[in-house]
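Handout, section B. The chain below has 236 residues.
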Amino acid sequence: MVDYQRNGKTVNGLVYVARDGYLWWLERTANKISFVDGKPFVKQIVFKNLDPEPGRPNIDPARQPGTGKKAEFCPSLWGGKDWPPPAYSPKTRPLYIPANENLCQALTGSPVTYTAGQRFTGIAPENAIFQIAPGADHIGELQAWKLDSGQKVWSHPFANSQLWGPVLATAGGVLFLGGTNDRYFRAFDASNGKILWEFRTGSGVKGCRSLLRSTVSNTSPFSRGGVWMPPACRHG
């Protein structure tokens, strides 16, 4: 829940960074949640457009797989952003998104037989192909979006890695982020996305960050290793 400005007024907002590759601006009231706006934050070729009233996407049928039919789409099933939480700074007011840009997929439906305990999706594993969008020079991307204007104000690309790290925003204007293949834990300037500090850990940094303040210094503990969704991320 984040309030934002739109058309000269304050909106009691809900903002959702979805796997479908869209950033959704919503309005919350006592009786309902209403659509305000939606914009793609990564390469998105599945939605042809949005209905301006309910905000319902109009889906391109060519991007829907079927039995014996191949469909290519962006973003992939991993989404423009999967489980890693974004961060919002009430001080600087951007929303900071750990995105995966240019990651697409091709699926071909095939007849399958249900087997207990096995994946049952109608797609044989060999018919699920991940691919990079033509001409792309990166996948992982830390983004900053001004919710009041609806514009992306900066981004920091990661040329050789996806991005699987939650973002931590601090009152001091610093962002903390891990989640890249090179095992670095980094601090970024929240105003422009420039790297202020980085440290290579012994394994990947995918867990949620927290900030501990003492009379001596501020520290940012985190979990590392192959842990996809620590309890701290699931339960706040």
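Note. DSSP finds one helix and 20 strands in the chain. Compare this with the example in section A.
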